[in-house]
Amino acid sequence: MMTRTGRVKFPCQRMTWHYARMHGSASQRFDPLARLRSAAASRAAAGLRRQLVPRSADDATLDLASNDYLGLSGDPRLSEAAAAAARAWGTGATGSRLVTGTTMLHAELEAELAVFTGARAALVFSSGYLANLAVVTALAAALGGDVLIVSDERNHASLIDACRLARTGGVRVQVTPHGDTAAVAAALAGRAQEAALVVTDAVFSVAGDLAPLSALHMIARRHGALVVIDEAHSFGVLGEGGRGAAHAAGIAAEPDVVRTVTLSKSLAGQGGAVLSSEEVRQTLVDTGRGFIFDTALAPPAAAAALAALRVLSAEPGLPGRARHSTARLASVAAALGLDVGTPDAAVAAVVLGDPLAALDAQRICAAHGVRVGCFRPPSVPAGAACLRLTGRATLTEIDISVASRALAIVRDHCRNTAQAGRSTR
């Protein structure tokens, strides 16, 4: 296009000018990636940046960070069962449970889980996280939507997310103070909703304390509510032969108790399961979105979990050894003057408070041959950043000594840092 001055004016220039007029230049428009970089920098400054650290198969570091409570992750009985399943069934489940994903291995695992734990029925999922999402949302919907969910403030993220999903369907969620049975009773007694669920961890994943399950069940039954218990950190560790905290409390077979377990901790594999009445199981098969629309647990993982369950059945002393190892770790930390609670299961938390202090302590432990967990907000409340030590049935006294030396250096570093901070005031 020729202008009066003889210059050529291309249509694309006109379009570019029009776009800039309407939307602003590229430099003026909102930059989402810049916003993400800024947020990441703020998290890093606060000690809240997360990093993925690959480990090698021959890593000789003393592992006090994993959830391999019974020390079965490297057990050849599990790996051989997984390999045999891969040869027989292939590496993947090939579909959801309702299509092609249910094999005889899944059926065997569900049957043996139910018998072992004293449940009336079991249903296997591809993860414990999905099991929690499915059971809470499906039950809330099946009960008519006019439901109150009462949730402990320290519950695992999977239960919190399940409550949030249920809330989108009109369910009311009331969060109660940690371990406060009176608050649970008051919430149930004062509810306007016809139906109610009480959801709680059995053993809370960071502090390692045990929920008052018997009291919660009595309160829930009195007020016509179901109890959903996440046994991720108690199954394989508490109860007779590792049957779980609900079994120890004598409520495992009660029809108004629903339990979820993970296959990735004590059973050293992957996946999850719901242990419940047959009515709850059928509700999940019919309506549980996390069950219906997810690819089934891979056959090798199901076989490994089945093998681990049989090892646990044959060696009932494993849970006690895991608890003993954790108690030894906690006593060592306490003797050093560190802030550590008395563990109820296989988790002990050494509270350091500040996220940066916890990161420093984790690095010190790693430098001295010990891998520990480092938990910071939002995994824990503000001011409660900690190292998480997990015991294992296979820990030796030599392992305890190595851990003691690393924790002593952490203690000294914390003291020196505190003194340096006081001297600069």
Q: Key features?
A:
single chain, 425 residues, alpha/beta, Aspartate Aminotransferase, domain 2, Aspartate Aminotransferase, domain 1, 2 domains, 16 helices, 12 strands, 46% helix, globular
3D architecture notes:
This protein is of the alpha/beta class. The protein folds into two domains: 76-314, 3-Layer(aba) Sandwich (Aspartate Aminotransferase, domain 2); 317-423, Alpha-Beta Complex (Aspartate Aminotransferase, domain 1). It is built from 16 helices and twelve strands. The chain has helices spanning 11-23, 32-45, 76-89, 97-101, 104-117, 128-142, 157-167, 181-189, 213-222, 245-248, 278-287, 289-292, 299-314, 318-335, 355-367, 397-423, and strands at residues 62-64, 121-125, 147-152, 172-176, 195-201, 226-230, 257-262, 272-276, 339-340, 347-353, 370-375, 385-390. A seven-stranded mixed beta sheet has the order 2-8-7-6-5-3-4, sandwiched between helices. It has a five-stranded mixed beta sheet with strand order 1-11-12-10-9. α3 packs antiparallel against α13 and α14 (318-335) packs parallel to α16 (397-423). The longest helix is centred in the C-terminal third of the chain and has 27 residues, at 397-423. The radius of gyration is 26 Å and the shape is globular. The mean pLDDT is 93.
